[in-house]
Amino acid sequence: MRDLKNKLAQNKYFLLISVIILASIMLYIGINSKDRRETESYLSESDFPSIRIMIQNGCGFVGVAQNVRNAVSQKNIDVVGVSNSRKFIYNETIIIVKHDDEIDLQRLKNMTGIENVIYAVNENYFVPFIIIAGRDYQRFFGL
């Protein structure tokens, strides 16, 4: 009987210590994630370097690439050139990834709203991303 009482008392202490340790870990994680969120909230897109892109007209409508260039000029995007794509076959606007940089890709997606992405990685290419404006380009650039 005495052994049973001792074991119950030990189990209670073990449980109490486990709860205290678990609560301490949860408190530590909560404080650190709050600090990180507060730090991130101070940063705006303009605090980062601009993203270099090329814009191509993929739908064939006259002046689309230049109009898209004008639309993104308000954003933290550096358009290094505009041109027509080889074929005017694009129904949907896409981002072509030339440099595998997931952080800048996410930033570009956030700034433009474009979700369609194709990877054609070539680290020697002169820009990290190409936006090909498809027939739905107005959806993303308010034109």
Describe the structure.
This protein has helices at residues 2-42, 64-72, 102-112, 137-141, and strands at residues 51-57, 77-84, 94-97, 117-119, 129-133. It is of the alpha/beta class and 143 residues long. A five-stranded mixed β-sheet has the order 2-1-5-3-4. The longest helix has 41 residues, at 2-42. The mean pLDDT is 88.
Overall geometry: elongated
The side-by-side strand order for the widest beta sheet comes to: 2-1-5-3-4
Which structural class fits the helix and strand makeup? alpha/beta
Strand content: 15-25%
Average pLDDT metric: 88
Helical region count? 4
The major beta sheet can be summarized as: 5 strands, mixed
Number of beta strands: 5
Radius of gyration: 26 Å
> Helix fraction?
40-55%
Helix-strand topology string: HEHEEHEEH
Low-confidence stretches: none
Measured between the Cα atoms of the first and last residue, the distance is 83 Å
